[in-house]
Amino acid sequence: MLEWMHDESVTRYLCTDFAAKTIEDCRTFIEESHNMQEHMHFAVTNDEDVYMGTVSLKHIDRGRHSAEFAISMRSCARGHGYSTYGMRELLRIGMEEQGLKDIYWCVTESNRRAVQFYDKNGYARTRDVPEYIASVYTKEQRAEFIWYHIAG
């Protein structure tokens, strides 16, 4: 996990300063990920159980049946289908097992690799993003985002 956090090709367009993260931050994240009330985090691994990345549902609002999706994958995972699998499986878990009705996520317009991935996989763009979802980002960040949405 720390490898992708310190890989600028992975973190360049993300809103968090991952370069400042330590191995202890990773351990804390993993330990806290077991309490899956407001956030759900899952590791994506290959067939040999080697960590490839993390998929998450964040800011889960059980009353509104909604959440925000996030994904971060190691650069060595690119082109092997791990992102596609991890994303589809977590969206399925969110909709089918957690009873969510709406899952949103965003990406900066300049992150062409991610935009191409979401568009190629048929995810719908939206401009209709509820304030309670968008409010975790600054106005400047929101101006750069392309938002996606799936509804159950």
Please provide a written account of the structure.
- The protein is α+β, with helices and mostly antiparallel strands and 152 residues long.
- The chain is 35% helix and 28% strand.
- The protein has helices at 2-5, 8-11, 23-32, 82-97, 112-120, 131-134, 139-144; strands at residues 40-45, 51-61, 66-73, 102-108, 124-126, 145-151.
- Helix 4 (82-97) links the parallel strand 3 and strand 4 (102-108).
- The longest helix is centred in the middle third of the chain and has 16 residues, at 82-97.
Q: Oligomeric state of the chains?
A: single chain
* Total DSSP helices: 7
Mean pLDDT: 89
Q: If strands are numbered along the chain, what order do they take across the biggest sheet?
A: 1-2-3-4-6-5
- Portion in beta strands: 25-35%
- How many distinct beta strands? 6
Order of helices and strands: HHHEEEHEHEHHE
Low-confidence sequence ranges: none
